[in-house]
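question for whoever is on the cluster today: can someone run the full assembly for these? two chains, 616 residues total. i dont have access anymore since they changed the login thing
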Amino acid sequence: MAAVEKRIAGRSPTRLAMRRLRKNRLAIVGLGVVGIVVVVGLLPGLFAPHSFKEQYQSAESWQVAPFTTGKHLLGTDELGRDVLSRLIYGAGISLRVGVVGTGVAVFIGVLLGAIAGYVSGATDWLISRLTDTFFAFPSLLLAIGILAVFEKPTEVIIFAALGLVGWPGVARIVRGQVISLRDTEYVLAARALGQSNPAILLRHILPNCMGPIVVVATLMIAGNILAEAGLSFLGIGLPPPSPSWGRMLVDSKEHWPVMPWMGVLPGLAISATVLGFNLFGDGLRDAFDPRMKE
Amino acid sequence: MLSYAVQRLFGVIPVILLVTLIVFTLNALIPGDPGRIRLGQHADPSMVEAWNREHGYLDPFMVQYGRYLGNVLLHGDLGESDVKAGQRVSEVITGAFWLTLRLAIGSIFIAVMLGVGAGIISAVRSRTWLDYTSMVIAIIGVSMPVFWLGILMIIFAVPFLNENIPFLKLPFSGFHNTSWLDQVRSLALPCTALGLISSATIARLTRSAMLDVLTQDYVRTARAKGLRERVVILRHALRNAAIPIVTVVGNSFGYLLVGAVLTESVFALPGLGRTIVDSIIQRDRMVITGGILIMSVIFVVVNLLVDLSYGFFDPRVRHGRG
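^ ran it for u. tokens below:
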């Protein structure tokens, strides 16, 4: 009896999805990239050979190209700062903005989406119109508008802006999922047992929506990293001397012809990180939605 | 079809009204004292206040919003620039808008040709090296910021192309208005950069839409009837995959507008996006709000057109049975 139970337990949809995920080579590559960015971004001090804002003015450190001196592996920038160290500290910014910005969006989106789907009626109508309205803005444009309000944006403001911009996508998915689960037998059973509405939502419905939420969140992290890079590139993101990757690109603008590495390396860092999250997110989606595979 | 169209049209009205409210709220939150900006740092505070009162900046928020909305809806007037005296926001925006529109149309043309083409080929030749290669390129395209592609073009492609093709004379940046040929030269690289990046998403979704359709029974029937493969793909499969493809192309147009902001910034094109960003730096509230409002309304209208086009592609929608 115990053995049978164990076998059944071993085949939960999540476990099956994880098994499919492990077989997806591109997704594992993505996970590897994500892992590197997470470790480096969380502990930049451990990996960065220099400070991210120290300006080295000596002849052997001033605007040197990558791989020409052992002291600065990836060279130095237009102000003589170590590029590798700035890229490493920049990973932390990208990671925090990507993950926390997404967290804010997921929190608002799950809350409003779950209420809209579960309560229905006038509440649903109101929340859905609000969702439509936020969807009516091209997302980066709304973020630009929000950041315009602040003279000197901080990371927290960028988290909030990206959260405010990103929640409608989550809310729509959660609302759809909740509606499809609301009238299932196990929810009916929970209600018959006298459980309260919040308990039913939290314990029975939302855990069954986790797959799509995780997928959309992973891909949103990629989108938010791109968005932060774009905002910084436009000069309305984090102010200098922040080593944000988008900022590094735009600050070296005048120097691209003579220091091409400053136009290349930060962009490479952005693209590789976003690619990692995208590959992993795609893999998760395929794993949770077996229809996608064959 | 008519009732569907009317219903969608009426659905858009409250959304646009709410968009104006959000945009105007942002406008009110943006710091900066219009009177102070206009009269200068050393103006007498009482004069600044009088100026603000005269121009309605001290009225309650809802009164100001009502006036703004009235001017926008009745006269198409987006107000006056805070920074440049006498300059109407609509004038500032119109010129920039045409440039952004040309950039967007050029890019979407490249994006659709490349994206839909690559998507169809990938689906038809699915699980071959052709499919894998184009899909790997596509996911790299999705992950790459458009401004970085622009930078790479400026650093590497422009010098290389100009050196090897003498009559090309591509500019590094800026919009050169002197002749139509110069205009084409100025827009060639921005359109290519933005089009390439947008084509990646289109290619991925076209592929999956086509793969869905290609396994359907009617495609097998069409093949069994002995129709040529080209007819099966283009007439039977592509038509049925049209709705998701049109949706993604429509959505891409929206992202293209956003991408245009970034592209204009790399190539120093004085388009709408660039105008908005410059106004943020100059703290010109009315131009910021006007620009964001116009871009958002275009986005809403494009999405509406996409929805309405479903009726054209799918008779079930047309006859109200969708």
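summary bc i know u wont read the tokens: DSSP finds 14 helices and no strands in chain B. The interface with chain A takes residues 11, 14-16, 18-19, 22-23, 26, 29-31, 139-140, 142-145, 147-148, 151-152, 154-156, 208, 254-255, 257-258, 261-262, 265, 276-277, 280-281, 288-289, 292, 295-296, 299-300, 303 of chain B (CB under 8 Å).
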